[in-house]
Amino acid sequence: MTRVAVLMGGPSAEREVSLVSGKACADALGSEGYEVVSIDVGRDVGALLRALEPRPDVVFNALHGRFGEDGCVQGVLNLMGIPYTHSGLLASSLAMDKTMAKRVFAAAGIRCPEGIEIAPSALDQGDPMPRPYIVKPANEGSSVGVRIVRTGDNQPPRAREWAFGARVLVEKFIPGRELTVAVMGDRPLAVTELRPHSGFYDYEAKYTEGRTDHLVPAPVPPAVYEEALRVARLAHQALGCRGVSRADFRFDDTGEAGPKQLYLLEINTQPGMTPLSLVPEQARHIGIGFPKLVRWMVENAQCDA
Q1: Does the annotation mark 142 as catalytic?
Q2: How far apart are CA 150 and CA 199, in angstroms?
Q3: Residues 9, 22, 145, 272: which is the catalytic one?
Q4: Could you say which of 142, 143, 245, 277 is catalytic?
């Protein structure tokens, strides 16, 4: 019997979401006949190494955010020679570093919002670009720390309020519609439009039931739908991702920022696997149930070593 260790929890700001993802994946893998051990990961790498003995055949990485999604745990598993789900060390590190990922996307000819990286101290020196713009951490996920600064707002966040490291990414705000595409291997699954009931698609809108409508397939023009599928796969390949990833887009159909265009925001190499998550939803849409999805992920696990 194949023994699978499911890593969940972790020390990042996305710990609670990871615990829900991990439990859902562990339950599904158990129903598929795998021997499953669940590991709540903390900051102690030695404790993780001990928890991985006896060594499993495969690690299902259900961690989100720093350490689990940025190449750190991937490096540990590479050293141990254990196959694991999702992307390898380099792709994980690049995707989590939004500034570096944007450079890779630009080299691949992918349109992203105009952006600059600044130090937190620069937040006290006035607007770093014309409003409206987005302020976000350079290496967090799930919209943690994201803020939209609009015309008429009193002020952007200040340096003393910034709790997300020494790098701040500032991007031009793209009006319009929120779209997302899951990629499974080299296959883009579907396009979903996300319509939050209020505000923007922030952490609460993502993980609170009833706060956002998921429209799949997205009601966008066929050419835009196909372009989102194409760019999601291209971005997945440009970063060297494997397994499952998710590409997030803005489609500006307002004309406010120029021609109606699609903009790639980022790639998520460890997308959520909770009951509200988008990857399982898109998989269901094309006839792949949740147990079959996680089985595929285990069967396609790899190790960089």
Answers
A1: yes
A2: 12
A3: 272
A4: 142
Tens-level pLDDT at each residue, the chain (305 residues):
899 999 999 998 889 999 999 999 999 999 999 999 999 999 899 999 999 999 999 999 999 988 999 999 999 999 999 999 999 999 999 999 999 999 999 999 999 999 999 999 999 998 999 999 999 988 876 567 789 999 887 677 888 888 888 899 999 999 999 999 999 999 999 999 999 887 665 555 555 666 789 999 999 999 999 999 999 999 999 999 999 999 999 999 987 656 789 999 999 999 999 877 999 999 999 999 999 999 999 999 999 97
* CATH number among 3.30.1490, 3.30.70, 3.40.50, 1.10.3470, domain 115-172: 3.30.1490
Q: What one-character DSSP code corresponds to residue 14?
A: T
CATH of domain 3-85: 3.40.50.20
Is residue 61 part of the annotated active site? The answer reads: no
- For the chain, the 3-state helix, strand and coil shares in percent, each to the nearest 5, are 35, 25, 40
Domain residue limits, the chain: 3-85, 115-172
Which residue among the candidates 84, 133, 201, 207 is catalytic per the annotation?
Answer: 207
40 is catalytic: no
Q: What is the spatial distance between Cα 205 and Cα 33, in angstroms, rounded to a whole number?
A: 34
Whether the CB-CB separation of 248 and 256 falls below 8 Å is answered with no
- The model's pTM: 0.91
Pick the closest to residue 59 from 79, 36, 43, 42 (CA basis): 36
Structure-token pair, residue 194 = 């996300």
Instruction: Kindly list the distances between the CA atom of residue 156 and the CA atoms of 145, 148, 169, 246, in Å, as whole numbers in the listed order.
Output: 12, 8, 13, 29
Given the residues 140, 193, 202, 248, the one annotated as active site: 248
Whether residue 262 contacts residue 224, with contact meaning beta carbons closer than 8 Å, is answered with yes
